[in-house]
Amino acid sequence: MAGSIEAMFRLDGRTALVTGSSRGIGREIARTLSLAGASVLVHGSRESEALREAAEECGAVPVIGDLSSPEGVESLIGACRAAVPSLDILVLNASVQKYVELGEFDESEFLREFQANTAASFRLIEAFSPAMRERRWGRIVTVGSVNQLRPSPRLTLYSATKSAQMSLTTNFAKTLAPHGVTVNCLVPGVILTDRNTEALKDPVYREKVRSQVPCGFFGETRDCAGAALLLASEAGRYITGIELPVTGGMHL
Ligand SMILES: NC(=O)c1ccc[n+]([C@@H]2O[C@H](COP(=O)([O-])OP(=O)(O)OC[C@H]3O[C@@H](n4cnc5c(N)ncnc54)[C@H](OP(=O)(O)O)[C@@H]3O)[C@@H](O)[C@H]2O)c1
To answer: Which domain holds residue 237?
Structure first.
């Protein structure tokens, strides 16, 4: 299969960490990378049935660490180093978000979201990219949000964390490109996961949001998986520093 299209998307011999892969988009990305041949570490903030199921589904090793504290990030780094010698692929998918109106912001929420969505990404790239550089091959995929492209007043804080992460993405992309390491951001629109089940329960609100998606329907987790595989594989070797919207056109 050498030189074939299929071979360009294979990940045999590669090792990946997908953060926030006990559920939702991360879980589907982990499953896809594993189907493509990668050894995967699946991750959750804590031990859970969902994490155990995700690990079983991917034949993967589960690792935990709460990214909303620097100690949790260090603990995840330690768990990964104990599980595998190095990582070739890093998918930074976990995030926290809270709907807050202007006037409701408090410093602890500000620090929690910046820690989990931005600082944790910085630290994980800092920890795992040197080995990628040495081997002259690596793929880093951050997961952003349509909110970094399209204002959403109740998600102002979350959007700012994702925009800051995008800045990390482009800066690291330029730094690491000469060393065979690409860094890109996958930008989901509204994808049906646990995260938005509650908000989309109200049929009036659901229809209002759906009508803002030019494709006319909400995305599913599998819609993000192919984009992640492109960015994680040899097929994506000449793509770096981009934000790839998987939004059904909602960012337009
Ligand atoms: N779904 C959407 O419509 C949408 C839209 C735009 C962007 N996104 C982005 O896509 C990514 C995945 O979203 P999703 O909807 O799949 O999320 P989700 O269903 O809510 O799952 C979140 C995942 O992140 C983990 N996680 C949550 N808080 C964490 C913390 N403090 N530390 C470490 N891990 C934590 C969870 O682990 P536990 O199971 O242990 O809690 C879980 O695996 C996120 O970056 C999100 O911002 C999603």
So the answer is: 5-191+220-246
pLDDT tens digit sequence for 85-101: 999 999 999 999 999 98
Helical H segments across 59-184, by residue range:
70-83, 107-114, 120-135, 156-176
Rounded to the nearest angstrom, the distance between the alpha carbon of 26 and the centre of ligand 1 is 7
Distance 227 CA to ligand 1 centre (A): 17
Residue of 67, 154, 195 to test ligand 1 pocket, by largest number of atoms within 8 Å of CB:
195
Residue 184 within a domain = yes
In this structure, what CATH number is given to the domain that contains residue 102?
A: 3.40.50.720
Note the Cα 22 to chain centre separation in Å. 12
204 found inside a domain: no
| pTM for the model | 0.98
